[in-house]
Amino acid sequence: MKLAWFDENRLGVVRGDRVHDVTDVLSALSITYPYPPGDPLRAKLDELRPQLEAAADKTDGMPVADVTFHSPVNNPTKVMGTPANYLKHVEEAELDPEIITERFQGKVTDQGLFLKANSSLVGPGDGIAVRVPDRRTDHELELGVVLGKTAANVSEADALDYVAGYAIALDMSIRGPEDRSLRKSCDSYAILGPWLVTADEIADPDDLDFTLTIGGETRQDSNTRHMILDTRRQIAWASEFYTLHPGDIIMTGTCEGVGPVAPGDVLHCRFEVIGEMDVAVRAAG
Q1: What is the pLDDT of residues 67-119, one digit of tens each?
Q2: The dihedral of CA 29, 201, 239, 71: what is its sign?
Q3: What are the phi and psi torsion angles at 117 (to 5°)?
Q4: Residue 239 backbone dihedrals phi, psi, to 5 degrees
Q5: What string of H, E and C letters represents the secondary structure of 138-186?
């Protein structure tokens, strides 16, 4: 199943090139204060799935091209990033002082996960607003992993059991000497979309081709099998430090080819099985 938020806070099931409005199913979510942490829809996805499918069957749907897609996740407790997780990206960073600056350059497990502010999370239809125009802002295309269950200290063997699904992720980054969590947390600097593909549709998240192009020029082209830490290890590692809640997101690291964007650019992102999305860049404010 492909689940999306689109237009004016509508919930949709995507089938082929059409999105079916299933917003009425949300009435089955009974939520009272104090609100539970995380995204309640991700927490009850298995329970609601038959209703979502049935609701989608009753509508003709509308063309995917005619709607605006927002982040398929709402209210995560955290957006986590895995740094330096592709060897070729590590190698290119070592040759480009603007990428690595003066930060610690140890291996991925020495650097540790970083956090992106939840307020930075948007969907492809919301676009990227370049926040500091006199600084370099780079694109970093990644696999986004969305948790569906509460997890703490899980084993690598069981880690994928806690995944609700996957999406295309962009970890936008201002280059400079400051901590990652400052430079990567600007509004619109965490893009997730265009929808969430439920975990049952992706047999192996560690073998997915992906590409990013701008104006027909290929910037990034790789496969998730080149990750240094695979998806299972990243989930288990994160759960050693944090309790993971439904809707929490892990951006699993980027490959080589990162580069600057400018207002007017349109990033075309493609991930095998998941789909494709265009993300426009504009000046903030």
Answers
A1: 999 999 999 999 999 999 998 888 887 777 777 665 656 788 889 999 999 99
A2: negative
A3: -60, 140
A4: -75, -15
A5: EECEEEEEEECCCECCCCCCCHHHHEEEEEEEEECEECCCCCHHHHCCC
- What pLDDT digit, counting tens, does each position of 199-223 carry? 999 999 999 999 999 999 999 999 9
Task: List, for residues 137-175, the tens digit of each pLDDT value.
Answer: 999 999 999 999 999 999 999 999 999 999 999 999 999
CB contact at 8 A, 124 and 190: no
Neighbours of 270 (CB within 10 A): 16
pTM: 0.96
Q: Which residue has the tokens 């990227």?
A: 128
